[in-house]
């Protein structure tokens, strides 16, 4: 049995998973964003309730939106101020009296896809999140490929999509990271909404845009074509670098199968290598991959130790 948390800016999800990967209990609570004591209490309460219910004291995996210093284990970036700079894993391990492993949510999603999802059985997985913004995680041979800074797989920052924007009559915007030209501002659902607002003059939800696109609306098609080009250009570069077996997609956009297929066709067209089968595919755990992957962190860590012994 494994316990898992997925910590987001607005809610904390808790899951109890059987060894076979079945979810036995799932709960949600609001994230105490600014109060560390309240944050610790929210996690401790969920754990002690589950301990009583199941009569076990399983290890805990935690998925969160942000970066982790690989040397110290301190949270270096997070949308939850209560845990910023805190050694989340080590401190919670001491408080809760069991092993706690912590990883970025996109990495956890990639692990879930690699172990039991759309990328099961393949060697190199680059999983992407097209959610509010853009994220990504890499799994190679069932493991995360190390990392020096704690920021790995973040293909939505440091880009320069300005040329594509200007060619399509769109104005560049500064990114939250401080740069201008990042895909993160354009490659998620908010980006699609932003593109369509500039193209059509109407601000509607990303689902309204994709619905209108499927119904044959010309302005929605233009927005979708620009969105697909923006995402596919940056993704094709990642394909050239990583040469992945497949790219499972998570986040809200993952439910848009036709859009994923259009992006896939553009990516394979632009990539240097030849890929006969679809690369960019909807994730099998698009909705709960962060939580599910967090529950797999201890399994991954033990296999890593086994690998070192051989
Ligand atoms: Zn950025």
Q: Per the principal axes of the C-alpha atoms, what is the gross shape?
A: globular
Computed CA radius of gyration, to the nearest angstrom: 20 Å
Individual helix count: 10
Order of helices and strands: EEEHEEEHEHEEHHHHEHEHH
Low-confidence stretches are none
Largest sheet: 5 strands, mixed
CATH architecture descriptor of the largest domain: 2-Layer Sandwich
Strand order of the largest sheet: 3-2-1-4-7
What percentage of the residues does DSSP assign to strands (E)? 15-25%
Bound molecules: zinc ion
For the residues shown, what is the average pLDDT? 95
Give the total of beta strands.
11
Helix content: 40-55%
Determine and state the CATH class of the largest domain.
Alpha Beta
Distance separating the two termini: 26 Å
Give the domain tally.
2
Alpha-beta classification: alpha/beta
Question: What is the fold-level CATH name, i.e. the topology of the largest domain?
Answer: Nucleotidyltransferase, domain 5
**So, the CATH homologous superfamily of the largest domain?**
ATPase, nucleotide binding domain
């Amino acid at each position: 049995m494994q316990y898992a948390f997925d910590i987001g800016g607005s809610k904390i999800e808790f899951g109890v998973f059987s060894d076979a990967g079945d979810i036995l209990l799932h709960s949600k609570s609001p994230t105490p964003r600014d109060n560390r004591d309240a944050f610790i209490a929210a996690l401790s309460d969920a754990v002690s309730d589950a301990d009583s219910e199941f009569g076990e004291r399983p290890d805990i995996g935690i998925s969160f939106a942000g970066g982790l210093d690989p040397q110290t284990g301190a949270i270096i970036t997070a949308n939850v101020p209560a845990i910023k700079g805190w050694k989340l894993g080590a401190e919670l391990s001491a408080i809760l009296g069991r092993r706690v492993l912590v990883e970025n949510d996109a990495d956890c999603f990639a692990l879930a896809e690699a172990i039991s999802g759309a990328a099961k059985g393949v060697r190199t997985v680059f999983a992407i999140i097209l959610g509010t913004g853009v994220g990504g995680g890499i799994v190679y041979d069932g493991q995360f490929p190390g990392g020096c800074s704690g920021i790995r797989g973040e293909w939505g920052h440091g880009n320069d999509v300005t040329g594509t924007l200007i060619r399509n009559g769109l104005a560049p915007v500064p990114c939250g990271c401080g740069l201008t030209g990042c895909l993160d501002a354009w490659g998620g659902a908010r980006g699609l909404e932003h593109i369509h607002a500039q193209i059509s003059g109407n601000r509607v939800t990303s689902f309204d845009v994709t619905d209108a696109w499927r119904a044959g609306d010309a302005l929605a098609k233009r927005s979708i074509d620009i969105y697909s080009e923006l995402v596919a250009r940056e993704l094709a570069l990642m394909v050239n670098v990583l040469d992945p077996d497949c790219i499972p997609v998570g986040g809200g956009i993952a439910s848009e199968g036709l859009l994923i297929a259009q992006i896939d066709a553009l990516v394979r067209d632009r990539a240097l290598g030849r890929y006969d089968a679809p690369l960019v595919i909807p994730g099998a755990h698009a909705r709960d991959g962060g939580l599910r992957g967090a529950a797999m962190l201890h399994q991954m860590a033990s296999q890593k130790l086994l690998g070192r012994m051989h």
